[in-house]
Amino acid sequence: MSATIFSDGPLFPRLKASAHEPGEPWFVVSRRLDQAVAEKTARREIFHRWLAPADIGKARATALDRTRFIQVPFWRVDLSIDGFHVNLNSLQVGRGPFGIPVPMISSKHRSGPLMVSAVSAFPYEVKVPRWLVHTVGGVPPLEVGAEELLPESAASEGEESAAEIVECDVPRELAERTAQTAVLNAVEPSYAIYSKYEPRVQSVSLVRYPIFYVRYRYDGEARRHVSDECAVAVSARTGKLVAAKHPSGARAAAGKLKRLFSF
Question: What is the residue range of 138's domain?
């Protein structure tokens, strides 16, 4: 599995002089883990997840790039949401099979931070954190506490020089709208006959987050194109998966079923 097929240049395109330059001060999150720990997580995610293609471990099918240490910008949007919704419950009358529909009002108040990638090409999907809704399965949302944020001036010079700094191309206004939409979609129930929720942005911080990033190229039986460009991003602070772009899970599952029933 050779890295020679990958360019050794910047992972993400350099922006032109006219690109978005945030006016907000930068904060950083410090790195805690060694590269070797992150590489184990990345390899487990690439080769051993359930929806990995059956042939992904073969050298002819998969080529790995070297592990890159990068600082990825995120907008940390601290917001609150308040509101209510109305749904119909059935009130049983007597012993008959039918009930009377009765409107029930439920209200909610939630507040907390949500992370939005400030790089459009970085494969992070906005996810609602645990303070808002309990999620099961998939890549967990990236969560950064206020106590983890350090002013850029307090960052370790050695750590900064070792990392590739990724530039920001997502403006604050877009990040705020993205966060508000994600929160609304998570809170508003689909079964309500009426709902009214209003998210409010309390504060916004621009954060450089440490990531170990591994690109890989897959050219096996589950590929969508001639060769799929994929990647895994692992937190250099927690060792947890932050983002991933893999070959088609549906194609991989179909390939495994085909192998299972082939005699």
Answer: 26-76+112-187+205-260
